């Protein structure tokens, strides 16, 4: 995995901008069924507002300001400001937007909470969720946890150990934390190299152009809110015993037996991490299946593979209380009974935008349900001078999306290039074990959208597992619109799926057809070559004939 550099971040999930021809009607049917983190938000006249950003021409660059003899000060309708831009929150989106704005000549200040591995209303750290409590520490733990499976696989290849390898939790945590410190330092450098001033403290909005940081007042022509989100734990008896994803990434000891509540991508990833690190893992999901919104076959396939690795799924089972016994162990009381003996109970039950107690409603910034900031296509809020990006707006909660929104905002406001964030198709990954990755439509969405669909699937035992003797399999799916021959969706669950899918996403973005896939030469021997060798459809969906056609 590449790490952030001063020119941009490389993450494991990327945004791309293929124009898939969804109709508005289909979109509106699909969006509620797709989890926020993996929605394909497509532009349509009725589902998104398309008006131009209001009052854009007020920006004057730092150069213009100083030529007017006012260092770093802009003017609007006779008003003077300390800065052109004040950003609240130095996570993925805030850092990107501030850096780009400064490169366009704006005078920029950003505020961020003091560093801590666990977030709160008073703690955070430069780099934000992705770097400190999300993508990066999670992926480091995935790497660590994958070794146990590799050790198992290795026996068939002739490896024998006199004793089972022992994992040192303290070493993992110390190295992970050292890496996070390094990364937060890199982010600070990114800001200072771009000329962005960093202030440590909690930002609060007190006027359309005014921010209060721990009692000190700053004014800016534009304010950008990029405060991200935090884990949400439902209010049930015993919630004080529960940990969230922040804490799960920074435990002092390896859990002996852990209950993970939730069926989304964060729950699946942590189930794989703790299973790989030899904890006993139980996953409780309210629904019948994990990963709502993903391709149905992928949902079944990944749950089966994870079960084979020893994870126990409790489906349609919702925790109602967590009880601590005298020996310190926790019991999970559900609608179906009580399961005892957990050292840890982790809730991965969603996240909420960090918009509480920020003074937003007072200045007229409209909030949607659960505190998400309402914005137009240009990330402008209901107050002209206040903008919002990233998880705080609860559009598509992924790092590359926050980066894209930050870049679009900076271009719109500080480079006179009105730029809409583009959500037309977003490849995504789940770093479960085995991992999942996808780009484009699920089979269910494609049937609704196009009607006439050919589906090519392959469910196979990878070469490595023929000798390892383990029951691992890989699953791949290509979905093709038969009217155009265009590949409209690709899905994979199996080793290296996210790495493979990033390349496939380019092909799908370029609008390539199934025959382009078919004429591509495979790389042999790989699992990925399967994507260019699937010739016979597994299923054909055809629209029912209308009455006039019968
Ligand atoms: C466990 C986990 C795993 C994830 N894995 C992935 C993944 O693999 N791939 C992926 O693309 N995405 C992943 N994500 C999602 C990703 O981390 C977020 O989508 C991304 O970080 C959002 O960026 P942001 O800029 O909106 O907010 P954030 O990165 O959350 O940054 C917001 C910043 O604002 C600060 N802040 C909040 N309030 C204030 C205030 N009042 N004043 C000053 N500062 C404030 C916070 O401290 C924080 O630093 C994961 C998330 C989690 C929780």
TrEMBL record:
Homodimer. Disulfide bonds join 130-135. Its EC number is 1.8.1.7. One of its GO terms (molecular function) is flavin adenine dinucleotide binding. Gene3D superfamilies: 3.30.390.30, FAD/NAD(P)-binding domain. It comes from Zostera marina. This is Glutathione reductase. Residues 426-534 form the Pyridine nucleotide-disulphide oxidoreductase dimerisation domain. Catalyzes the reduction of glutathione disulfide (GSSG) to reduced glutathione (GSH). It comes from the Eukaryota. The keyword Metal-binding does not apply. The keyword Transmembrane helix does not apply. Belongs to the class-I pyridine nucleotide-disulfide oxidoreductase family. One of its GO terms (cellular component) is cytoplasm. NAD(+) binds at residues 262-269, 350.
